[in-house]
Each structure stands twice: as structure tokens, then as C-alpha cells.
């Protein structure tokens, strides 16, 4: 299940999403007493659990998935994802400040002390 990826952290994000994050799926519709339709959802499960429950995997494939699932360390995954996110924030910080300065220069109001008003005298 561990594949080579050119994006740092991609495997950790995929593992967290597919093995550790339960999601609910739409299961149908119901109608309340007034006649309004309401969406019904199933019990939240991880994609890993859904795949095991589907019955389409061979015993070997199930064993491989279980072994990979059992090898995962949720705390280490979350820590690594956070580390990469903080690194991205640091790398983007200077560019963000540069863009903010450009926007401020374009949208800045003129200095009112340099504006002269000529008043007409009432006749």
C-alpha cells in the first residue's frame, strides 16, 4: 500500500483519509410528517472498512490491507502532516507578505496632506 509519490506527505494524507477517517455516505431519502424530503446517511466507516465489508477482496488482499492498517501510527501521521503544513506556511510567508504589500500599494488612499482644496468665494 505504500507507493512512491513525488509529493511530500501524500502517502500520509492518503493513509489518514483511507484508513483512519470515517465518512458517512448517502443511503437514501425519507419524508417527514410535513412531506419534506430528508437525506438519510449510513453509519460512518473508513474506506478501508467499507472495502473489507464489500467482499470483493481475496484473502491475500485482505491480509495485505490489514497488515498495512495495523502498521499505521495515527499520531506519527498527524505529526508529519502538521510538520509539512507548517513548512509550507513558512515557505509561503514571504511571498504572501510581498503580495500584501503590492495590494496595499495599489489600493492605498492618497495622502490627504498633499491635496489642496480651492474654495470659491460666495458672490
UniProtKB/TrEMBL annotation:
Residues 1-15 have a biased composition (Polar residues). Residues 1-31, 104-123 are annotated as: Disordered. This is Uncharacterized protein.
Amino acid at each position: 500500500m505504500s507507493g512512491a509519490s513525488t509529493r511530500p506527505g501524500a502517502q500520509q494524507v492518503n493513509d489518514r483519509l483511507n484508513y483512519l477517517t470515517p465518512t458517512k455516505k448517502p443511503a437514501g431519502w425519507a419524508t417527514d410528517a410535513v412531506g419534506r424530503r430528508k437525506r438519510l446517511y449510513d453509519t460512518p466507516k473508513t474506506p478501508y472498512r467499507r472495502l473489507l465489508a464489500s467482499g470483493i477482496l481475496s484473502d491475500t488482499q485482505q491480509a495485505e490491507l490489514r497488515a498495512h492498517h495495523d502498521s499505521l501510527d495515527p499520531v506519527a501521521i498527524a505529526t508529519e502532516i502538521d510538520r509539512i503544513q507548517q513548512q509550507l506556511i513558512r515557505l509561503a510567508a514571504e511571498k504572501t507578505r510581498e503580495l500584501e504589500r503590492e495590494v496595499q500599494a495599489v489600493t492605498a488612499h492618497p495622502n490627504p496632506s498633499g491635496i489642496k482644496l480651492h474654495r470659491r468665494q460666495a458672490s
